[in-house]
Amino acid sequence: MILGLDTRVVMALLSGGEPHYRRRLDEARALGAQACLSSIVLNELALAALKGPRADQDLMRIDALVGEIEVEAWTAEDALAAARLRMELERDGQGIGAFDTLVAGQALSRGWTLVTTDAWAFLRVKGLALLDWSDPAGARDYSEAALARRMKAALVSGDR
Known about the structure:
This protein has 160 residues and is α/β, with parallel strands linked by helices.
């Protein structure tokens, strides 16, 4: 499994203030998952660092993380997938942010599971495998298969 980390997850990893993010990444790797960053995410991180008061320090932390997590370049296939996604979302009146659309499109194009702290935005993206790491108590799997399992369990137990 390839985990595409979104900007907020990487910012949490960089800050170190919430250790459950690092723990989840380490656990996923121990189970054989590979983590990566979209070059779009790297762009967002660099811009935030350059705008901040500690630009040099923040850029060094980003550089150290890039040494640990592979950055995946944006391709023509990713661009086409993101364009299709944006068209579908806008047609349905369900648009999400421009960068979120690009990252989600790349994840769809490559078959990644997107790891986020903002599942609400990404739940609008049909077919996107999605993990939310924001809760220190545990990750939440929003993939279609996981949602189907939860629905089936609710029906069997009588919860509606």
